Fold these 2 entries.
Entry 1:
Amino acid sequence: MSLTRRQFIAIGGSGVGALALGSGLGTGFWGLDRSPLHDPGSEGEKVVPTFCEICFWKCGVLAHVKDGRVTKIVGNPAHPLSRGKLCPRGTGGVGLLYDPDRLKQPLVRTSKRGEDRFEAVSWDAALNKVAEGMRRIKERYGPEALALFAHGYGSSWWSALMKAFGSPNVGQPSYAQCRGPREAAFSLTFGQSPGSPENLDIENARCLTLIGSHLGENMHNTQVQELAEALSRGAELVVVDPRFSTAAGKARYWLPIKPGTDLALLLAWIHVIVSEERYDVRYVEKHTLGLEELRAHVKEKTPEWAYPLTGIRPELIRESARFIASFKPASLVHPGRRTTWYGDDTQRERAMAILAALLGSWGRRGGFLLPGAMEVPKLAAPLTGAASQPAASQAAASQPAASQPAAKRPRPAADKPKGGGYPFADETLASGLLEASFPGVAAYQVKGWLVYGTNLLQVLPDPRRVLEAMKHEELIVAIDVLPAEITGWADVVLPEATYLERTDDLWAPAYKQPFVALRQEVVPPLHDSKPGYFMVRELASRLGLGAHFPWPTADEAVEARARAAKLDWATLKKSGVILGKAAPTTEEEGLALAFDTPSKKIELRSDQLKAAGFHGLPEFTPPEEPPPGSFRLLFGRAPVHTFGRTVNNRFLSQVFPENELWINTAAAASLAAFADKPLKSGDRVMLVNQDGARSGPIRVKVTERIRGDCVYMVHGYGHTARGLRFARGRGASDSALVTRSKVDPIMGGTGMNVNFVRLERPRAPEDEAGKEGRA
Amino acid sequence: MSRRYAMTVDTRRCVGCNACVLACKAENKLPEQGFRDWIVTETRGTFPHLKQEIRSERCNHCEHTPCVSACPTGASHKSEGGTVLVDHRKCTGCKACIAACPYSARYVRPEGYVDKCTFCLHRVKRGQEPACVEICPTSALAFGDLNDAASPVARLLHERASKVVKPETGLKPNVRFLT
């Protein structure tokens, strides 16, 4: 006897009685002698492939749907980024979709900004109000005075709207608050950046060096899969981290570096590798520019020089450098992701890029891969700015007219100060747009904000500055799924459907296995939430820009794009992904390396930086020390959470309900303020930073796993928003303590590891109850 | 030959991310604060001389089963492949099994009966892997039949050194940790 899966599910779904009956009928099939097998019934009647949005990695997932509800989410075996596996966060889509605190209706503010008082209105009324505000800004100040702050893949529709509207001011905090310094440094050195997802061949690396990455706690699915695979094959791991991270626990070498001194260590490593001729001679001679200048530059940067700066013994520096070099070229120095630490971050990343070049690992097996992407042309203007590709024009022809009179060329983005600055920023600075919101800072002032999926009060440094900036704005619109802090300050709140309830644009990134992935609606939107495309199209039509969005729904827009690119739409719907043809990604595979730099070489020495008044080779400047009794505040990720976005996720929070403050055992024992009753794990403390900013109470984790001069917490906690009923008051906010940042003069990144905190006992019993001390 | 189900947990691969725990919760519709598997991180030494091991743990489906012996109603029993199960209909929630288990692998559901890892036998019957094994991004988990030399667990245990948690219990766990 055999059962199809559908039949099996029908039995499983009808309860215990039917199960017992089924078991009796099919004893041989089940092979159970004692009791019927209980089926929990989570297998979907329908399984819909889509891609995840719990983080930016965007893994392919399969969402199981039963009785109209998503029961579970697993990895899509056909998708190159998930390969059937998934990180814990990805399972948490159900916790987002069914979050009882979701924004459910469009809201319009009824009292002073920030008082968080709103009335629910119709979509029509909300969109009219937004369109009116946008039109008024355009009339008074020009379209460029409107800025979009955005995070997440759904923002592509909003970027298109901005383009149609005539504003270049689209700032993704993922650049200047995160990966920007890395992008700038690698572009300066190699002519391109590692991309996102980073094109790293971790799987084939024989040695992986993590300096500023806590991969394993940072759960980028594919990278963690490859890390495990590499370790399993005997690859070596070198970890530089003030904290004994998960990865450090698996490493051959752990270098517990003094925070802020990574560049000194990198220069000393380069010193060893260059002076002992341990670099890849053929590769360096053929492809690089400036070896001799580099040799002279690091001549004095000996391990003995680095020792007092970094706290790492000279013999350990020497030994680890030789170790790393011995595996070249399959010796991969991970470029990191959030690289905005100390304001000299581009130079530190430059040193990492130089090291990668010396190891000959760029464009080599086990190093950095150089793949292409599938060609999936975007459709008519403004999605491309031009409808020149034949495929695109063909699609456009079959649709309502998308042609618009050529818009006036907008003024350049307002994200730089008046006199210029940050010459190597290759994306718009979200923090720059914040500054441009103040009068007189930039060439013109930003007067209205659209805020899509990014909680600026936790994302940008110094929440006080964000609150101040909002006073100058005539329009603030928040588009979000949850009532994060920033939505409380908006004039209009537009509740978006979650990624499981909407279709977004196709995604075809550069990756070793090129692919195009589809995000499609798994279940219809709950409450009165709507997909982003709906909002954008409605706003466009109210602003006279309707011709830019001719397709009635995102599904139709995406289908038109897929068909124009000759993709099999049925296959894409059914498997969620279509694979392209893989091309060579390394020299070993026959790729001819080319570098898009002025010299067409790998620029160990950067004349571009020099010409702009910066060091052509990285120089180390020691960071400011914490005052006595204070600790440097470091923050990072937990495997089950993405920033502050998942802290309200009740499903994910079951295994990580609140953040803890890591403090070294000996350091905790010597705290004068706690002399009477020494701190132990689980005690709650308050944190006060150098500017007097305070955090709410946080539990301490007294541990050997961190240096004594810094403390560490997982980012994203300490929510204050009333609507986040689960997250509110849980753990402490690192963001509230990052009142100071050091801006990287090269590309405008905001270094945020420059704050110091001291620990205090909670003052009153109500603090113990878990309330945040201040807004 | 009869089946002998076992699981291996590769401590070299595991990063303790909790994907196994959450996938189990969704698959088996576990109640809030009900867990059939969990992560243990053991750190030894003092700064900076530290060693660490991370394990994904669950019911060990032991050869010798004090939990079954302790059960007054016969709800706790050994099922196919040596899998230890609880028949929810027979369980009175007396917690004798919980007291007998040295691994704290069991908990009481709000409905009043005891619940624990089943090796996802309902999935295994369909030819699928247990939910924790399927999801694991580091492929640290493997499941199979020890009596089948070609099964992943048999191969891994042949190739790699392994250990069990609390060997002093003498219960012969069928969850093995690859070191």
Entry 2:
Amino acid sequence: MILSENDLAALGITLRLAVVTTLILLLIGTPLAWWLARSRWRFKFMIEAIVALPLVLPPTVLGFYLLVALGPHGPVGGLMEALGGRPLAFTFTGLVIGSVFYSLPFVVQPLQSAFSAIGRRPLEVAATLRASPLDRFFTVAVPLAGPGFLTAAVLGFAHTLGEFGVVLMIGGNIPGVTQVLSIAIYDHVEALEYTQAHWLSAVLLLFSFSMLMVVYALNRRFSVVQP
Amino acid sequence: MSIDARFRIRRGEFSLDVALSFPERGVTALFGPSGCGKTTLLRAIAGLERCDGGFLKVGGEVWQEEDFFLPPHKRPLGYVFQEPSLFSHLTVRANLQYGRKRLREGERKVSLERAVELLGVGALLDRRPHQLSGGEQQRVAIARALAVSPSLLLLDEPLAALDLKRKHEILPYLESLHRELRIPVLYVSHSRDEVARLADHLVLLEAGRVQATGRVSELFSRLDLPLARGPDTESVIETVIAGHDDRFELTFLDFPGGRFTVPRDHRPTGVPVRLQVKANDVSITLEHQEKTSILNIFPAVVDELADEGGSRVTVRLLVGGVPILSRVTRKSATELGLRPGTAVYAQVKGVAVLS
């Protein structure tokens, strides 16, 4: 076996993190994207800017703030402790929270543009055919935005796979608990274990490449992210 | 029963300010030039355009008033948009069933088969919208709106996006809707030909205001309205088939002013038929011409003249109380001494049988 037990654990954590993060992001990203696509609120641009922030912000900055917030002396971590829980920094849950912030624009933006592309007409048609707002959303908007959902899921997933800075800041590097692939690779390089670094990198490269191929093949009109 | 609507809507430069009432049967056309507010009015009736302080009552049921607004999906109406707007992710069958599935059991008065048959879309059921021509898509859209058994059918220029050939493909279906279903229809159009063919009642809109309302046959012959101006002025006359002549292949059509003779029509005696007579096809004589090839000559009285300048005048004639427009040269009008009250003969050179 070329991959060590630690490497396999890192692979497992990485995949679990990406799956959980993508699911959570689809759950909260869908209503957010729907609102962004439909709302005429004049200060909408501020929310759009906040959503897009992780695109430009160095991951270490995002990670730092999250660490402060989630740590035992931060507002969230403090609250968790007061409620008898443990602070979230250096836990898998902490990683999930960090990843959700980090990958947010990669899920929200494709969904938002997919919802915008539908236009108002199909929803008005559905309204005249007795469909309530929620009914219209699930039977018209969601199916018509199908390719957008695929794009959002794959991008969110792939982006979470390659996470480094945020994870390092709030998850640390605990093998078997919070050590993800990209950090394992970094460790191998630090230790001059190039063979292992090669194998792990190849796994990530292949994974990302094949996922993007699937997206492009299924969705020709695909545009990655519009800032 | 009638449909009463009162709306005041402001959208930037444009404002719609209307109060109107039209019968809850037959086809009512909202007619006017582009940008006069026809579509906005229709959308307001459907509840797609929200305005404060509006009022809408359909068949004794209030859909909107001061502090009440029935959302569009709770209004028992069918809406056909200018573009077919079929759901591209569904088959034709699923499109037709979309609204129907959402009705309560007792609300399904028009069967799906009936809607499919009326619009002739039976062969298209398993196809996807993108596999249909524009005309086919629009027919499916109309069938889809019918399948929800609406108490009011709203059609927003359903033929506007189609070329002439497709228009003529759909018009017969719309005419049969008109004849065979008892659903009141509100039909937005800027085509006088469509209005002449399909509508019973007319609401003329101009710059967001109601200019006139009334029966089609009445408003088409009113010289003070823009309908009687322009090069293709015409009259619409309601008649009933009185009989046929097999020897000469002719059909007789009775109206209060007399009897029209037209080429043989396939429909039986007693069927109401609408005629369209172009003002340019009606000439005026003071004496009854005996030896002439023209079959349709009626005694008439000049009711009103409209001089639009130029060489021609439009004359409104009353034939047994029924208005028929004639367009003659000003020279002829002067030489014949035409003025309100003059007794004349109207010679109708050509008629078009509409429905």
